[in-house]
Amino acid sequence: MNKDPYGQLASSLYASMNKQTRQAMGGVGAVLGTITSTGLKLDDFKHELQDYMVAELPGMLSLPRYTAKGTVTLGGQQQDMTFEAEENEVEDTLLELGKGLKPGDRVLAVRVNSGNDVVVVCKVVSSGG
């Protein structure tokens, strides 16, 4: 019984393209990881990475109007105080995520440059805190 040669060719091309696509996409995407004392350990990769990047977020910080009430001690006497801050915007701020990460922190990392580099995007916590 003869098989259709064109069908065999199409099937072979389809299988080859699927394999190439899986290989290309295997090294990209977001993954959870853990900051260690010497680097970053990704959940889906057995080796620790010492060479990784951490996102920084430049921009303008908008602060809402805020009121704080409390008791302070002045000259040995306790007094009730109220502190009020007006709405404000601070230009040229920079959130440096890397300076706030500690060993044991869980993070969300993204592979970039065809999976050759990893960027830590944020710290993640459980919904309970």
Description:
It is a single chain. The chain is α+β, with helices and mostly antiparallel strands. It has one domain (5-123). Helices cover 17% and strands 49% of the residues. The protein has one helix at residues 5-26, and strands at residues 29-35, 40-42, 48-49, 53-54, 56-63, 66-74, 77-85, 88-96, 106-112, 117-123. It has a 6-stranded mixed beta sheet with strand order 3-2-1-9-10-4, with no helix packed on it. The chain has a two-stranded antiparallel ribbon with strand order 5-8. Strands 6-7 form a two-stranded antiparallel ribbon. A hairpin with a 4-residue loop joins β1 and β2 (40-42). It starts with a helix and ends in a 6-residue tail after the last strand. The relative contact order is 0.22. The model has no long low-confidence stretch (mean pLDDT 87).
Quick one: overall form? Answer: elongated
Total strand segments = 10
User: Approximately what portion of the residues adopt beta-strand conformation?
Assistant: over 45%
Mean pLDDT: 87
Most strands sheet? 6 strands, mixed
Radius of gyration: 26 Å
Task: Spell out the helices and strands N to C.
Answer: HEEEEEEEEEE
- Number of alpha- plus pi-helical segments: 1
End-to-end C-alpha gap:
66 Å
Number of domains: 1
Low-confidence stretches: none
What class, by secondary structure content? alpha+beta
Which strand order do you get reading across the main beta sheet? 3-2-1-9-10-4
Classify the helix fraction into a percent range.
Answer: 10-25%
